[in-house]
C-alpha cells in the first residue's frame, strides 16, 4: 500500500500542478498511473518468492499440495508481471508526443479489463469484510467446497479461523484507520513528495564537476536518489506518528466516555462524597435479581438511569444520607477499613486518620458524621451567612445553610456535640446541669417552631463561638485546668443569658424559666465552681469526640492537602472516581466466580535483611537512608506508629521492632513480600464482603457501633501524648472481630494465591534465608500456597522431578504438602519464567486466574471490585465473550528517581491510553505481561497461558495474547480497577529491560504466530496489530536508518562536488529537506511517548498539570533519556532480526544508590550507542569541514541540530544519569579501572567483566550462530566503515598534495635532470671504477 501510493504520488507530483486532481486531468498522467499494477504484481511475485523460500521445508509427501500451491503462486504472479508490462508497453506504442488514437484507447480499455480480473479476488475479500459473519461461517466450517475455494489464498490450518469481528466493530476500527491513512497520505503528498519534485528536476539538469567517483555516467541520478532516500524512509515510517496522534485523542475520548478523571482532587471528591454510600451500595453490594431479568434491555435501561442519577446527584434517594440508613453503616464499615489499611501502610498519620475516618453515631448526633476533612471551614461559613442574614426569617437562613449538605451537617453536629459535651462535664445531680438542660431545650423549641432568629440574637453567635473554642482547647490539653473550665463556662453562661436573648430577661424571669439558680446566694460566686466533673483522662471515646468537635469549630482552611501523602490522595481519588464508572453488578461472595492468582518467583528478594538496609555504598548512602529520604512522610508515620506500639527511643527500632522495619522497607521495594501483601488484600476484602452479604441490618448497625467503640478504645491515642502503647492490628482487620465464622471458609473456596517458587525446595535444603522468609509469609497468610519443583535422587544416581504444592497448617503449626505430581523430566527445558508458570498452573483453582509478576502490588480498595470484574465474563464484547480481562496498572516507582519518573510516565500512557485504544475501537489488544485475568478453563484446553520455547518465546506474555486471538478469543480492557506495577529505576536496569523487550519483538518477527496473524487478520486489524507490536520497533529502527541515510547522503554530496554545483546553479534542494529534518527532530524528541503522556495526563490530572509535568520532565532531560532508549531498542531489535539469539536479561529491580563505573557502562553501551554516536559525530564533523552549505552557520545548525542532539544523547546519557557521574575522584578511579580492564588479557576462566578481550569475543557470539544471510548483511553494513575511511583518506591525500603541487613538479624536474646526467656519464664511461 505504501509503495503503491508513493509511486502514484510521484507520478502525479511530477506534473507540477497545484492540486493532484489537476494533474490527473492530463491523459498521460492517468495512463502512467496504470504502472501501479505492474508494481503490485511485482510485489506479489516477491511475496510468493519469500513464502516459498521460508516454507519450503514444510513440503513433504503428505503436504505436496502446499508445494504445488507455492510454485503455482510464483508462476502466476510472474505471468501477471509479463501481462501487465506487455499491455502497458502496447499502450504507448506509436503514441509518444502525439494525440491519443482510438487504438490506444482500446488498449487502455483492455488493460483496465485485465486489471479488473486481477483485482476481482480483492473485491471478493472486501465484500466478505463488509459482511464478516459470512467469512466467519465459511472459515469455521470444514466443508470441502470451502477448502477448495480458499486453497489458493491460504493454507488450511486449525488456528486463525473465524477471526472477523462484528459489523459495528468493523466500522469503528475501519473509520479510525481510514482517517489515519487519509491524513498521512495528504501530509506525505503535499509536504514530503511534492516539495522534492522541483529540486529533483533541477538536480538532474545540473552539470556537476565530480571531484571523485561518478556512479551513472553523466547523469545525477545517484545524487537525486540520495536526496530522496531519507524522504522515502520517513514516508514509510511516519504512519507510526499519525497513529500515535490519533490514538491519543481517540483514547482520551473513550476515557471521557468511561468517566475517567472526573474526580482528580479533594475538592472534586467533596462534591461527590455524599453519594458514595449509594454508589457503593449500587456497585459493590449484591442486588437480588431474577435470573430471567438479568441482561434484558429493561434491566440495562434501568441501570443506566440509576447510574445517571447516582453520578449527578439527581433524584431524592441521593440527596443525603441520614444516620439511620443501613447503607450508611455499610459505607462507614468499608470506608473506615480503607482508612485503617492506609494507616497500616503508613501512608497517612494518626491525625489524618481522625480527619479521614467516618465515625459511627455517638453523642446522639442526628446527621451523618462526615469525615472532618469534608466539614472543614463549613461552620465558619455558616456563621458568616448568619451574620449577613441577621434580619432574615428562620426558614430563609436555614435554606441558605442547607444548600450545602456538609454545612448543614456541620451545624447540626456541632450543636449536638456541644450540647452533649457541656452536659457531660457537669455533675448530673447539680443545679448547673439542669440550667444548661433548660437552655438547650429552649433553643431546641425555638428552632422547632422556626422562631430562632426572633428569640435569639444572631450577633452573639461569634462570641459564643470564641468561648466554645477556648473551652474545647482546655479539654484537649493533656493537663486540664478545672478553674479555666469553670471560668470559660461562666463566661458562656453570662453571654447566653445577657446577650443571646433578644428580649432581655431579669433574674426573676430567668429563675422562673429555670435558667438561673433558685438560691440567690449562688449568684454571688462562680456558678459552675462545684459542678465540674471531667471524664477520666483514659476515656478516649469522649476526648476523641472533643478533638473532632475542635476540628469542626476551628478549621479555617479547606484541607485540600489532606492527606499529605500523594499516593494516598491518588488512591482515594481513583477509588472514588471508579465508584461512578460503569461496571457490572457484584454477586454475593458465595455466588461469585472462584479465581486464583499466580505469581512466578525465582530468587528475588523476599524481605530486605538488616545488613542490606544498613550497608552503605562508597558515598555513605544506605538503602534505609535512601528510603527515608524519598519517603520522608511515610517514615515519620512509621515511627509514630512504632512509638504508639511501645518504643521510647528511636534506636529500639533496630532491636525490638526489627521485623517491622524490614517490612516497612520491603514494602517500598520490588520484593515478594510486597506482592504477597497486595494479593492477599483479595482475601481480606472478600471476607469483609462475605460478612456484609450475610449480616442483617441489626448486625451491621450494632457492628458499626461496636467497631467504632473498639477503634476508640484500642486505636489511636491523643496526638499530644507519646506514651500510648495501643496499636492497630497488622495481622488482620479489626473488622474480623465481627465475623460469624463462615466467612473464612467461603473465601478459601473462592480464592487461592499460588506463588510458583521454582527453587524453594533447593533453598530449604541449603537453609537459604529466602526459604525461611517464604515460610513466614505462609504463616501470616492462610490463603497462600507455594508451588515448587522437588528433585529427588534415586538409587541409580538418577533424579526424579515433582511439582509440589505446600501450605502452612495453622493447627499443626508446620508446613504441609498438599499435592505432589511427578514430572517426566527436568522442568527448565525452555525459558524459565513461562516454565515456572506452566508447572504451577495445575495447582490454581476456580474459573479465572490472574497472572501477577513479582514486581507488582495491589490495594485493598481495588480488591473490593474483583467480584465486578469477574462478572465481565458473562457479558458480550462484540460478538464474543471475553477470554482475557485486561486490567489497568499504576506504576508505583515513579517517585524513586527522575529516570523512574520518565519510565513511569511512558509506561502509564501505554498501560492506560494505549491499551484502551487497542481494546476499543481497534479490537487488537493482546496480553502484555500485565495483571490480566485469564479464563482458566478456556486456556487450559488451548495450550495454557504461557509458551515456553527457548529464545523465540522470551517475551512469553504477548504470545498468550497471540494464542488467544488466533483461537477465537476476545481480549478486553477495564479501567475501573487497577493493580500496582514496579519498573526499573536506573539507566542500566532500564536499558536491559528495553533490550529484553526489543529482542523479544525481534523474535516475534520470526515467529509463526505473527506470520499467521498477518495472514488471517483483515487489513485494518493487521495495521493495528503491526503498528502496536513489532511495527513500533521496526519504525524506531527506521528513524535511526533515516539519520544514517541523511548524513551519509549529505557527506557524499559534499565530497563529490554536487553541493558546489548545486549552489552555483542556485538550486533550492536544501529547502526540500526541511520536511525531513522537522519530522526527524520531532521523532527524536520522543513524540511517540510525549503526546500520549500529555493527553492521558490531561485526562486524569488536568491540562495545566500535564503541561507542567511535561515541562518539568524536559528540564530534567527526559528527551535525552527517550532518545537514548530509542538507540537501545534499535540496536537489539535489529541484531535479533538479523542474527536471532535473544536472551533474558535480569535487571535486578533494586534501588540505584551507587555509581556505575565507566567500564561497566562501556561494556553495556559500546556497541549499541558509543560506536554509532562517534561514527555519526565524525560524519557531521567531516561534513562541516567539506560542505559549502555548512559554511553558513545557521544553515548547518538547521540541517544537523537533530543529528547532533542524537549524538550527544547517546554519548552523554550514561554519564548524566549515573549517580556522581561527574565527580572528579570517581572519574579518576573509573579511568584506572577501565585501563586495567582494557589491558588485562585474562585466562580461560576470565569473565567479560575482567577482560576486554573476553568481552569482545562474547559480543561476537551472535556471528557464530547466525545464518548465511545474517553474515552477508553484517558484512554489507560494516563495509560503510571501509568506504568512509577510503573517502577520508583520499580527501586527506588530495588536501595534502594540491597545495604543494608546484613545488613537487619543480623537484620532479630536478630529479629527472640529475638522473639523465648520471645516465649519460655512465654510458660514456666517464664514471668508472
From TrEMBL:
Alphabetical list of Pfam families matching this protein: CALS1, Glucan_synthase
Domain Callose synthase helical: 371-554
GO biological process entries: (1->3)-beta-D-glucan biosynthetic process
One GO cellular component, as annotated: plasma membrane
Signal peptide: none
Membrane-traversing stretches: 71-91, 111-133, 175-193, 222-243, 1025-1047, 1194-1217, 1292-1311
One Gene Ontology term of the molecular function aspect: 1,3-beta-D-glucan synthase activity
Descriptive protein name: Callose synthase 12
Keywords: Membrane, Transmembrane, Transmembrane helix
Domain Glycosyl transferase per the UniProt entry, residue ranges: 562-1274
Species this chain originates from: Hibiscus syriacus (Rose of Sharon)
Stored PANTHER family: CALLOSE SYNTHASE 12 (PTHR12741:SF7), LYST-INTERACTING PROTEIN LIP5 DOPAMINE RESPONSIVE PROTEIN DRG-1 (PTHR12741)
Amino acid at each position: 500500500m505504501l509503495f503503491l501510493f508513493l509511486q502514484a504520488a510521484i507520478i502525479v507530483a511530477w506534473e507540477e500542478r497545484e492540486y493532484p486532481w489537476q494533474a490527473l486531468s492530463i491523459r498521460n498522467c492517468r495512463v502512467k498511473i496504470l504502472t501501479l499494477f505492474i508494481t503490485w504484481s511485482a510485489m506479489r511475485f516477491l511475496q510468493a518468492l519469500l513464502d516459498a523460500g521460508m516454507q519450503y521445508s514444510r513440503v513433504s509427501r503428505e503436504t505436496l499440495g502446499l508445494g504445488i500451491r507455492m510454485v503455482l503462486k510464483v508462476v502466476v504472479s510472474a505471468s501477471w508481471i509479463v501481462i501487465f508490462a506487455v499491455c502497458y508497453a502496447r499502450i504507448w506504442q506509436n503514441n509518444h508526443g502525439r494525440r491519443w488514437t482510438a487504438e490506444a484507447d482500446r488498449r487502455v480499455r483492455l488493460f483496465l479489463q485485465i486489471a479488473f480480473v486481477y483485482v476481482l479476488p480483492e473485491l471478493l475479500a472486501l465484500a466478505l469484510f463488509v459482511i464478516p459473519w459470512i467469512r466467519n461461517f465459511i472459515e469455521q466450517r470444514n466443508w470441502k467446497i470451502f477448502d477448495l475455494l480458499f486453497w489458493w489464498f491460504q493454507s488450511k490450518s486449525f488456528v486463525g479461523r473465524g477471526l472477523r469481528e462484528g459489523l459495528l466493530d468493523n466500522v469503528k476500527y475501519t473509520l479510525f484507520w481510514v482517517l489515519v491513512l487519509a491524513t498521512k497520505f495528504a501530509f506525505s503528498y503535499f509536504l514530503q513528495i511534492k516539495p522534492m519534485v522541483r529540486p529533483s528536476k533541477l538536480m538532474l539538469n545540473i552539470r556537476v564537476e565530480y571531484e571523485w567517483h561518478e556512479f551513472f555516467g553523466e547523469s545525477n541520478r545517484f545524487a537525486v536518489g540520495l536526496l530522496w532516500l531519507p524522504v522515502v524512509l520517513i514516508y514509510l515510517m511516519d504512519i507510526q506518528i499519525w497513529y500515535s496522534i490519533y490514538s491519543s485523542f481517540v483514547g482520551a475520548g473513550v476515557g471521557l466516555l468511561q468517566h475517567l478523571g472526573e474526580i482528580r482532587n479533594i475538592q472534586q471528591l467533596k462534591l461527590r462524597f455524599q453519594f458514595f454510600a449509594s454508589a457503593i451500595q449500587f456497585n459493590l453490594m449484591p442486588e437480588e435479581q431474577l435470573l430471567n431479568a438479568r441482561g434484558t434491555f429493561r434491566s440495562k435501561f434501568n441501570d443506566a438511569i440509576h447510574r445517571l442519577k447516582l453520578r449527578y446527584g439527581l433524584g431524592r434517594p441521593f440527596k443525603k444520607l441520614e444516620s439511620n440508613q443501613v447503607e450508611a453503616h455499610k459505607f462507614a464499615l468499608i470506608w473506615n477499613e480503607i482508612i485503617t489499611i492506609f494507616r497500616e501502610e503508613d501512608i497517612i498519620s494518626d491525625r489524618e486518620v481522625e480527619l479521614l475516618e467516618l465515625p459511627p453515631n455517638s453523642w446522639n448526633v442526628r446527621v451523618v458524621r462526615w469525615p472532618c476533612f469534608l466539614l472543614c471551614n463549613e461552620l465558619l461559613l455558616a456563621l458568616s451567612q448568619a451574620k449577613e442574614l441577621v434580619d432574615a426569617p428562620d426558614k430563609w437562613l436555614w435554606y441558605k445553610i442547607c444548600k450545602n449538605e456538609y454545612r448543614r451537617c456541620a451545624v447540626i453536629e456541632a450543636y449536638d456535640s456541644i450540647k452533649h459535651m457541656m452536659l457531660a462535664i457537669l455533675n448530673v445531680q447539680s443545679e448547673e446541669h439542669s440550667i444548661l438542660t433548660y437552655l438547650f431545650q429552649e433553643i431546641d423549641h425555638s428552632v422547632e417552631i422556626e422562631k430562632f432568629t426572633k428569640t435569639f440574637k444572631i450577633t452573639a453567635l461569634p462570641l459564643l463561638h470564641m468561648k466554645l473554642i477556648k473551652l474545647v482547647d482546655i479539654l484537649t490539653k493533656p493537663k486540664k485546668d478545672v478553674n479555666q473550665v469553670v471560668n470559660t463556662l461562666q463566661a458562656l453562661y453570662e453571654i447566653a443569658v445577657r446577650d443571646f436573648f433578644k428580649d432581655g430577661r431579669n433574674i426573676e424571669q430567668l429563675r422562673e424559666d429555670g435558667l438561673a439558680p433558685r438560691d440567690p446566694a449562688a449568684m454571688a460566686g462562680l456558678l459552675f465552681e462545684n459542678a465540674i466533673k471531667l471524664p477520666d483522662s483514659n476515656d478516649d471515646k469522649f476526648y476523641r469526640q472533643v478533638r473532632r468537635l475542635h476540628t469542626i469549630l476551628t478549621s479555617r482552611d479547606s484541607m485540600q492537602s489532606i492527606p499529605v501523602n500523594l499516593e494516598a490522595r491518588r488512591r482515594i481519588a481513583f477509588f472514588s472516581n471508579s465508584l461512578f464508572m460503569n461496571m457490572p453488578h457484584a454477586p454475593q461472595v458465595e455466588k461469585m466466580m472462584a479465581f486464583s492468582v499466580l505469581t512466578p518467583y525465582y530468587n528475588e528478594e523476599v524481605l530486605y535483611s538488616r545488613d542490606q538496609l544498613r550497608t552503605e555504598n562508597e558515598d555513605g548512602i544506605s538503602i534505609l537512608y535512601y528510603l527515608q529520604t524519598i519517603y520522608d512522610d511515610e517514615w515519620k508515620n512509621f515511627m509514630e506508629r512504632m512509638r504508639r506500639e511501645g518504643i521510647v527511643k528511636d534506636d529500639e527500632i533496630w532491636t525490638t521492632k526489627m521485623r517491622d522495619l524490614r517490612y516497612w522497607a520491603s514494602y517500598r521495594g520490588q520484593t515478594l513480600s510486597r506482592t504477597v501483601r497486595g494479593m492477599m488484600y483479595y482475601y481480606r476484602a472478600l471476607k469483609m464482603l462475605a460478612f456484609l452479604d450475610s449480616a442483617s441490618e441489626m448486625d451491621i448497625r450494632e457492628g458499626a457501633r461496636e467497631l467504632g467503640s473498639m477503634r476508640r478504645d484500642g486505636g489511636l491515642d491523643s496526638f499530644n501524648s507519646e506514651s500510648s502503647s495501643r496499636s492497630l492490628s497488622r495481622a488482620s482487620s479489626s473488622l474480623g472481630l465481627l465475623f460469624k465464622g463462615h466467612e473464612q471458609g467461603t473465601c478459601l473456596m473462592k480464592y487461592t494465591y499460588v506463588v510458583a517458587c521454582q527453587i524453594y525446595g533447593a533453598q530449604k535444603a541449603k537453609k537459604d534465608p529466602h526459604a525461611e522468609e517464604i515460610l513466614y509469609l505462609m504463616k501470616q497468610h492462610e490463603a497462600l500456597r507455594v508451588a515448587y519443583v522437588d528433585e529427588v535422587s534415586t538409587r541409580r544416581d538418577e533424579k526424579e522431578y515433582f511439582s509440589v504444592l505446600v501450605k502452612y497448617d495453622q493447627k499443626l503449626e508446620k508446613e504441609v504438602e498438599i499435592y505432589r505430581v511427578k514430572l517426566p523430566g527436568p522442568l527448565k527445558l525452555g525459558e524459565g519464567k513461562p516454565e515456572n508458570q506452566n508447572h504451577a498452573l495445575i495447582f490454581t483453582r476456580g474459573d479465572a486466574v490472574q497472572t501477577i509478576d513479582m514486581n507488582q502490588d495491589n490495594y485493598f480498595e481495588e480488591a473490593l471490585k474483583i467480584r465486578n470484574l469477574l462478572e465481565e465474563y458473562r457479558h458480550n464484547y462484540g460478538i464474543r465473550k471475553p477470554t482475557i480481562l485486561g486490567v489497568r496498572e499504576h506504576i508505583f516507582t515513579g517517585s524513586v528517581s527522575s529516570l523512574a519518573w520518565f519510565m513511569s510516565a511512558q509506561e502509564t500512557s501505554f498501560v492506560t491510553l494505549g491499551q484502551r485504544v487497542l481494546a476499543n475501537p481497534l479490537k487488537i489488544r493482546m496480553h502484555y505481561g500485565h495483571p490480566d485475568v485469564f479464563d482458566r478453563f478456556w486456556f487450559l484446553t488451548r495450550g495454557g497461558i504461557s509458551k515456553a520455547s527457548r529464545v523465540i518465546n522470551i517475551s512469553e506474555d504477548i504470545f498468550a495474547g497471540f494464542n488467544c486471538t488466533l483461537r477465537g478469543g476476545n481480549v478486553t480492557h477495564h479501567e475501573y480497577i487497577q493493580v500496582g506495577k514496579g519498573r526499573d529505576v536506573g539507566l542500566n536496569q532500564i536499558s536491559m529491560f528495553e533490550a529484553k523487550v526489543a529482542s523479544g519483538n525481534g523474535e516475534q518477527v520470526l515467529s509463526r504466530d505473527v506470520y499467521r496473524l498477518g495472514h488471517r487478520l483483515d487489513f485494518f486489524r493487521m495495521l493495528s496489530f503491526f503498528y502496536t507490536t513489532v511495527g513500533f520497533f521496526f519504525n524506531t529502527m527506521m528513524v535511526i536508518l533515516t539519520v544514517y541515510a541523511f548524513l551519509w547522503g549529505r557527506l557524499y554530496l559534499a565530497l563529490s562536488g554536487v553541493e558546489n554545483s548545486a549552489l552555483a546553479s542556485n538550486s533550492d534542494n536544501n529547502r526540500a529537506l526541511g520536511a525531513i529534518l522537522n519530522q526527524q527532530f520531532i521523532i527524536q524528541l520522543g513524540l511517540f511517548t510525549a503526546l500520549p503522556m500529555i493527553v492521558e495526563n490531561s485526562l486524569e490530572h488536568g491540562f495545566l498539570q500535564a503541561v507542567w509535568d511535561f515541562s518539568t520532565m524536559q528540564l530534567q532531560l527526559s528527551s535525552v533519556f527517550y532518545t537514548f532508549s530509542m538507540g537501545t531498542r534499535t540496536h537489539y531489535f535489529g541484531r535479533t532480526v538479523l542474527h536471532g539469539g535473544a536472551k533474558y536479561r535480569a535487571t535486578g529491580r533494586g534501588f540505584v544508590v551507587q555509581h556505575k563505573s565507566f567500564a561497566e557502562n562501556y561494556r553495556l553501551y559500546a556497541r549499541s550507542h558509543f560506536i554509532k554516536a562517534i561514527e555519526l559525530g565524525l560524519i557531521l564533523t567531516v561534513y562541516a569541514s567539506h560542505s559549502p552549505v555548512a559554511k553558513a552557520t545557521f544553515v548547518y545548525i538547521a540541517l544537523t541540530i537533530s543529528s547532533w542532539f542524537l549524538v550527544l544523547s547517546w554519548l552523554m546519557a550514561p554519564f548524566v544519569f549515573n549517580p556522581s557521574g561527574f565527580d572528579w575522584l570517581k572519574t579518576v578511579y573509573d579511568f584506572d579501572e577501565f585501563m586495567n580492564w582494557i589491558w588485562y588479557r585474562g585466562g580461560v576462566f576470565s569473565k567479560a567483566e575482567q577482560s576486554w578481550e573476553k568481552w569482545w569475543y562474547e559480543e561476537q557470539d551472535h556471528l557464530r550462530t547466525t545464518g548465511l544471510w545474517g553474515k552477508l548483511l553484517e558484512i554489507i553494513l560494516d563495509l560503510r566503515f571501509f568506504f568512509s575511511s577510503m573517502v577520508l583518506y583520499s580527501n586527506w591525500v588530495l588536501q595534502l598534495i594540491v597545495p604543494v603541487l608546484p613545488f613537487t613538479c619543480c623537484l620532479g624536474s630536478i630529479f629527472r635532470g640529475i638522473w639523465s646526467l648520471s645516465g649519460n656519464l655512465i654510458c660514456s664511461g666517464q664514471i668508472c671504477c
